[in-house]
Every structure is written in C-alpha cells, then in structure tokens.
Amino acid sequence: MKRYWKYVRPYLSAFIIGPILMIVEVIGEVMMPLLLSKIIDYGISGGRGISYIIAMGILMVITALCMMAGGVGGAYFAIKASTGFANDLRKDLFKQIQSFSFNNIDQYNTGSLITRLTNDITQVQNMLQMMLRMALRAPGMLIGALIMAFVLNPKLAMAILCIVPFLAIAIYLILKVAFPRFTNMQKKLDALNTTTQENLTNIRVVKSFVREQYEEKKFKKASTELKESTINAMKIVIFTMPAMTLAMNITTLAVVWFGGNQIIIGSMTTGILTAYVNYVSQILISLVMVSIIILSGSRALASAKRIDEVLCTDIDLTDENALHKDITVKYGKIEFRNVCFKYYKNNERWVLENMNFVINPGETVGIIGSTGSGKSSLVQLIPRLYDADRGEVLVDDVNVKDYSLKNLRNGVGIVLQKNVLFSGTIKENLKWGDQNASDEAIYQCAESAQAHGFITSFQDGYDTELGQGGVNLSGGQKQRLCIARTLLKKPKVLILDDSTSAVDTATEAKIRESFKIKLKGATKIIIAQRISSVIDADKIIVLDGGKIVGMGTHAELMRNCQTYSEIYYSQIDKKVTA
Ligand SMILES: Nc1ncnc2c1ncn2[C@@H]1O[C@H](COP(=O)(O)OP(=O)(O)OP(=O)(O)O)[C@@H](O)[C@H]1O
Q1: How far is the CA of 345 from the centre of ligand 1 (A)?
Q2: Which residue of 70, 319, 472, 489 is 20 to 30 Å from 409, comparing CA positions?
Q3: Which Pfam families did the record assign (predicted)?
Q4: What CATH topology corresponds to 7-311?
Q5: Contact yes or no for 562/568 (Cβ under 8 A)
Q6: Protein residue with its CA nearest to atom 6 in ligand 1
Q7: What string of DSSP letters covers 256-299?
C-alpha cells in the first residue's frame, strides 16, 4: 500500500472530491422514496391537495438535479484520479523495466511484460474507478436505506435478513475461488501475448519455414486456454449476479407479503410500503455493488501482484555503489583478472573460467572460437551488460563497477550480434550514437562503416524511412548502419560482436582499413568467425569451452595454438574446396 501512496498523492483532491460528490447522489437516493411516500400518503390519500403534491414534486426535481450533479462530478473525479494513478504507475513500471539488467530481462518474457504494462494496469485502474464511485456510495446507500427501513417499520426490516446467506456465499466464492482463477486468467493472457508477439516479430521466418499452420495451432491453443480460463473465472461472476438478483426478488416479495398484511390490518400505509420496497431494493443494490467491488477488487489484486513483482524485482546491476561516478573512459585499456562468469548462478559449469588478459589502448584484438565458446559473453562484461561472478574487469585500470553505467557505456561502444534498428529514418537511427551529431559527422561515420554509398543510392538518402527492425534493408546493410551508429558515439573501446558476418570480405576489409584512420586511438575488439577478419590484429584471443586456449599474433598462434591452427586450416580447406 505504501508503494501506491506515491501515485495517489498527486490526485489526492480528486480522490477525496469524487467520493464526496457520490455521497450527494446517495443522500438524494435515500430522500426520494420518502418524498414519494409523502405524496402518496399526504397528497393523494391524506387529501392535502394538489399544492402539496406540486411542492413535493418540485422538491423531488431539485433532489434529482442535485443527484445528477453529484453523479456527474463524482464520475469525473473518479476517472481523473484513476487514470492519473494508472498513467503514473505505468510510467514507473516502464522505467523499472528500462533499468533492468540483461539478467533481469532474461527472467521475464516480453509478452508477460506487455500484459503487465497494459492489461494489468487497466484492471487496477478500473477497480480504482469503481471503488471511487461505489466505495462510499454502496455503504452510504446501504446504511441510509437500512436506517430508513428500521425507522419506518422495525419488524418488517427483519425480512431483509433473507439476503444474508446469499451474500455470505457470494463473498466466500469471490474471495476463495475467484482470486486464483483471475490470476490464472492473467497468466493465460501472458501466454497469448507472448505467442502473438513472437509470431508477429518473426513472421518472415514463419513464412519461410512454411510454419503458418503450426503457428495457427499454437495461437489457437493459447487463445482457447485463455477463453477457458476466462469462462472458469467468469463462472463466479455469472453465478454471483443472478444469485444476488434472486435474493433481491425474494426479499422484495417477503417485504410486500408482510407489508401487505400490515396494510390490511391498518398498521401501515401504502405510501410507507412503497417507500419500503424502494429502500429494500436500495439495500440490495448496494449489496450487489459491494459484491462487484469485491469481485473486481480480487481481479485487480491478482493484477496488482503481477505489477508488484516487476516493481519489486531487484535490479542486479546498478551503479549505485560506484566509487568514481564522474570519471569517463579516456584511453581504452582493458584488463580481465581471474574473471569467471555464468548466466545461471546454480549451474556448476562456468561459461567463462579464469580469464586473464590485458588489452592496451589503441590495440586491435580479435576473438576467435567455436560457437558457444563464450566470445559474446566475454565482451558483454566490458560495458557491464552482465557482471562477472568472480574476478575483476578493468577499463583504464578502474573496475567497471566503479564507473557510472552512463559513462562506461558511452566510452565502450558495442555492436551486438543481434542487430536491431528502429522505425524512423536512417538519420534518426544513426543519431542514437549522438543526438547532437552534425550531418557532416553522420556522413563521415557512415562512410567509415561503408554505408554512405548505399544510403545515398536510396531515393530519400539519409531520410529513408526504415520499417520496424530495419526490414527494408539487407542483412549486410543493417550491420553497416549499426556499426555507423556506434562509431558516432566516438567510443574509446569499440566492440564488434560478429557484426560483419553478413558483409562481403572486400567491404569488411575496407571497414577495417577505415577503422585504422577513424578510430586510430581507440581499442578495437573484433569477434569473428572468419580468421581473415582478425588476421592482422595486434593480438588474437582463442576461446574454447569458456577458457582461453591461446593468445598472440596470427603467426604466434599458428606455431603454438592447435585450436587456432585447426580453425585456420579448416577455413583454408573450405576455400580450396570451394
Ligand atoms: N542469455 C543467456 N542466458 C543463458 N545462457 C546463455 C545466454 N547467452 C549465452 N548463453 C550460453 O553461454 C554459452 C556461451 O555463449 P556465447 O553467446 O558467449 O558464445 P559465443 O562464443 O559468442 O557463440 P557464437 O559464436 O555462436 O555467437 C553458451 O553455452 C550459451 O548457451
């Protein structure tokens, strides 16, 4: 609750005024039957005449207008408070997800995070809105109508007790049965969103593997499961409402039966019975409202728990304890000291084991190794996309944990293996590297990444709109734009994680040449599958099974490292056979 106070505070006035205005409506609702009974008993039966009826009628119209004003105002403030609350909560939830480490992100699937950001927040918003409109109205109307019922005829009021067992069953069902069912329903919605998101993002792969039918089946399964879990949860709603209506009708019948008898023996007037029937229905309506509040409350509680789970996730990679938050990366020296790392902390096997090496400023270093040998994992420790479990990673002789994340990541530019571009123009995408970059700087970086040529061949040049993820580009073009984007950051350390795999060898060589001029002082780490991509490097690190099995120049490794020479000859053989 304490956590949510933050979201109530800015809208506190709406949170207070809304329910107060709803009370105006409640007072009117309680007044109306009384005024009606007076018209019947004194105006029609009592013979006070038309002027009394008109006076009472005018009073009823004024009451109805006040009720309307209260109702409209109450609804307005309820919407204002609940949407404001939800908007702020959603922004904070999104901010929390943005500050997640890669490790945190790995724990959730995207579909589930989308459901939490949208549907779960909407559930909480709806519940709040309902609470603000009904929380005072329902008990207010219940108490008001009960008082009136007891004042008018205490004996007849006992008939209202008929409702109690129905109400008890309804509340029990809602609390015990509905809550877990709503939680399950949200989980199924997660699954549906994940399936949809995965399918739509990768629709081209689906089509190229002719997996449409399989995907349809997968979607159908997720959709059917959602339908079934919804029906399962809604059974409670389905049962609750008619049960309450039945209770309402039985109680009204009991009141009319006992009240009618009292009219026959002359101990009650018709006007009072009419008012009484109204009060009974008000009592019952307010009880229905209470059960709706509990019902939607239990649904919203299931959603709130899921939102809370994200908000309470400990971000395991922050710069809160960094000792030198204001220093920046100046030279680009990198050192690994006895570094061990694994993704799943319970796993026995290390993904990287006892890594020890130094890369001096300005050096070009290649990293070679079989797939899964740990190349990407190794370089991701430098900009702290993950943290080492043992040992230290140092940049310019300072532990990476002692930099602010912003300064470290500004100094270390990484082109990830999975390149992603965003919807927008090419220029907008490149400006991710530097929002304030001049056109000249953008052109130069694109030139270095061998992208300027193909960009200018497009009709709209740098203003060409990219589809989502850069769909309207070839793999090699995308890779070159991603390199240009990182170059614009002017990093002191540039890491290319297999980022030229889709570029032909001649263009790749040109990119490497341009790095020598453009990034003269910067340290360059190049992960590659082709030895030709790193053959000229000052140093090559050879990985196998998460361990360094060789380090040196190409010539040294050819003499000393069997793994390296095997990779070399396998690639030469392929060339010869080709
Ligand atoms: N996000 C992750 N969560 C869990 N395990 C992972 C994750 N990323 C990689 N791994 C595992 O860590 C090991 C090393 O993977 P890594 O991506 O570093 O290898 P790599 O040498 O870069 O491979 P490739 O050449 O195929 O890109 C592999 O066994 C892989 O399954």
Answers
A1: 15
A2: 472
A3: ABC_membrane (PF00664), ABC_tran (PF00005)
A4: ABC transporter transmembrane region fold (1.20.1560)
A5: no
A6: 343
A7: HHHHHHHHHTTSS-HHHHHHHHHHHHHHHHHHHHHHHHHHHHHH
- Take atom 27 of ligand 1 and give the residue whose Cα is closest: 371
Percent of the chain with pLDDT strictly greater than 70? 97
State in Å: Cα 343 to ligand 1 middle: 9
Residue 379: name the closest of 484, 483, 494 by CA. Answer: 494
CATH of 334-417+492-577, one of 3.60.21.70, 3.20.70.20, 3.40.50.300, 3.40.50.1820: 3.40.50.300
Which amino acid is located at 564 in the chain?
A: Y
Gap between the Cα atoms of 93 and 96, Å rounded = 5
Length of the chain: 578
Query: Hey, which of 377, 525, 529 would you mutate to test ligand 1's pocket, going by the most ligand atoms within 8 Å of its Cβ?
Result: 377
CA of 372 to the centre of ligand 1 (A): 5
Angle at 496 between CA 490 and CA 501, to 5 degrees: 135
Condensed to tens digits (0 to 9), the pLDDT of residues 102-142 reads 888 888 888 889 889 998 999 999 999 988 888 777 888 88
- For atom 25 of ligand 1, the residue with the nearest CA is 371
Q: Give ranges for CATH 1.20.1560.10 in the chain.
A: 7-311
pLDDT single digits (tens) 78-91: 999 999 999 999 99
Cross-strand pairs, 525 = 365, 495
The predicted pLDDT at position 258 comes to 86
Question: What Rg, from alpha-carbon coordinates, does the chain have?
Answer: 35
Q: Whose CA is nearest to atom 17 of ligand 1?
A: 376
Q: Whose CA is nearest to atom 30 of ligand 1?
A: 372
3-state helix, strand, coil in the chain (%, to 5): 65, 10, 25
Q: Where in the chain is the domain with CATH 3.40.50.300?
A: 334-417+492-577
Q: What is the ipTM of this complex?
A: 0.96
Q: Is 530 exposed, middle or buried (0-12, 13-18, 19+ CB in 10 A)?
A: middle
